[in-house]
Amino acid sequence: MPRPVGRRTPHRTPADGTRTVAVVTPYYPPKIGGVENYTARLARALAEDPGLHPVVITTRPDGLRTTVATEDGVRVVRLGTWLRLSNTPLSPLWPFQLRRWLRRTGAEVVNAHSPVPGLADLAVVVSGRRRTVLTYHAGSMHKGEPGSGAADRLIGLYERHVLPRVFRRAAALVAVSPVSLAFGQPHAVEISPGADLARFTPGPPPSARPRTVLYVGRMDRTSAWKGVDVLVRAVAGPSWPAGARLRLVGGGDAVADHLALARSLGAADRVETAGELSGQDLVEAVRSAAVVVLPSRTEAESFGMVLVEAMACGTPVIGSAVGGIPGVVADGESGLLVPPGDPDALADACRRLLDDGALADRMGAAGRRRAEEHYDWRQLTARHLDLFRG
Question: Does domain 3-194+376-389 correspond to CATH entry 3.20.20.70?
Answer without folding.
Answer: no
